[in-house]
Amino acid sequence: MSPKSISAAKNASKEDENTDPAFDEVIAEMLKDRSRLWNSVELYHQYQLFGGKALLRRSLLVKIQDHFLDDIAVLSSPGLSSLVVFRQNASTVLHLAGDTEDDTQDLLIGKLAKIICDEVKQIDHDQSQYDIRVTKEDMSTSVSQTVMDLLAALTDNLKDTFPALLIANIITSVLSSKPTNLQIALGNLIRDSKSLINRLYQFRVTCSYDEILRFKRSAALAATRDIKLSGINQGSLGLIQAVADNFDADISSQNGKITTHSLAMLITQPTNASDDEQNIRESIPRISKSDMSKEIDFEIPMQRYQGPKIVPMPDNCSKKSVLPLKVLCSAILSERRAKELDIAFSKDVTNNEDCPEYNGYNTMVTRRQGVSMQPKTKAVYLPLIDMTPSDPDTIMTALHEAKRLTKERGQKNVIFTSDQQLYKVAVEVQ
């Protein structure tokens, strides 16, 4: 027998083995009524009625699935016969809703959740420092871009807006279990209300109150080392002045009376000088939890006056002279204008019920006259010098501290302002 004859005989035998008329009859019976609900027992009974013996009930069901593929749905439950129905009539026969959309939605949600978690893990959560300025760009670095894209897809009102950034920062904080710069900044805005911070922290709008206390302690410690962090910038951006005056306080209690008589100092500078450096991102070290209870060492170094006890007044400070005519005229005009404004205010406050108070009245007048508002002045308080204000050592200490802070900010000349009592001592010890 030739090889071709042997191959043809094998193929014929395989076709005879795969041919099952009873199975074909079952398939034809199912196609007659596609709306019918079948079970595996009925189908096997039909198979036997048609004379089928080659398949068992389980193998029959498998072969039916292989034949129809995705055209049928098989519902199985332990202890019960399987149900077979054509998919196109499944909702009518079984009153079921298709779950393809739900399955796809679940897959998409799971995929998005994984992407968001991965993006949050890649965010650099530096717990060793605080940012003292938080811009919109800084807020964006602490969020998942996928979250921002999802919010923007909901509505244009959440497209790269502050509400969207807040929502994204909350998600970042919850996933990372760490506060973001935005949450710390919002907590500092209401730092005086512990109950409000704790309530908002439950919603993760702000950080915890303990984190606010750590930030304040860290900021105080950093400000003792660099006056710029208190708001005083380079002298080229605005005139820096030192102001000194007496500080008196009496504290009475059941245990007695405590009296304080010391020297207070503050450093001033126009606020418009600070605006030029708003874009510079600065940070302060975040102290550890164990350092929270340590005292902040912020004492002004004491200076000792070594000169004579009685110093004659310098000649250039004791001379009396007539002020220039231009200065005298300017003073007279300013005084006259002030009197006119006072009279006008007295009339308006008497006759007009809606007249603002004195400061507001003057502001209203200057705005009507087109005078621009002067910028506010930033004032930074320094530690009290707990000594008698008029003592030469006290004034010497104040002068040295004013000189140090002024020189550090790049201003050559030191402007020191005080009343006449302290001015006399300052002239003697300089």
Concise summary:
By secondary structure, the chain is α+β, with helices and mostly antiparallel strands.
Topology:
Layout lengths: L2 H16 L2 H12 L5 E2 H10 L7 H12 L3 E6 L2 E7 L3 H5 L5 H22 L7 E3 L4 H5 L4 H10 L7 H15 L4 H9 L4 H9 L6 H17 L15 E13 L2 E15 L12 E3 L29 H4 L6 H27 L6 H11 L8 E5 L10 H17 L7 E2 L2 H10 L1
Parallel strand pairs: 5-9
Antiparallel strand pairs: 1-3, 2-3, 4-7, 5-6, 6-8
Helix pairs in contact: 2-3, 3-4, 16-17
Would you give an account of this structure?
The protein is built from 17 helices and nine strands. The protein has helices at residues 3-18, 21-32, 40-49, 57-68, 90-94, 100-121, 136-140, 145-154, 162-176, 181-189, 194-202, 209-225, 315-318, 325-351, 358-368, 392-408, 420-429; strands spanning 38-39, 72-77, 80-86, 129-131, 241-253, 256-270, 283-285, 377-381, 416-417. Strands 8-6-5-9 form a four-stranded mixed sheet, with helices on one face. The radius of gyration is 43 Å and the shape is elongated. Mean pLDDT is 84; it is low at 1-6 and 8-17.
Mean pLDDT: 84
Total helices: the number is 17
By secondary-structure content and strand pairing, the structural class works out as alpha+beta
Shape: elongated
Give Rg in angstroms: 43 Å
* Tally of distinct domains: 3
Strands in their spatial order, largest beta sheet: 8-6-5-9
Please outline the major beta sheet. 4 strands, mixed
Low-confidence stretches: 1-6, 8-17
What's the helical proportion of residues? 40-55%
- End-to-end separation in angstroms reads 130 Å
What is the total tally of β strands? 9
List SSEs in N-to-C order.
HHEHHEEHHEHHHHHHEEEHHHEHEH
Proportion of residues in β-strands: 5-15%
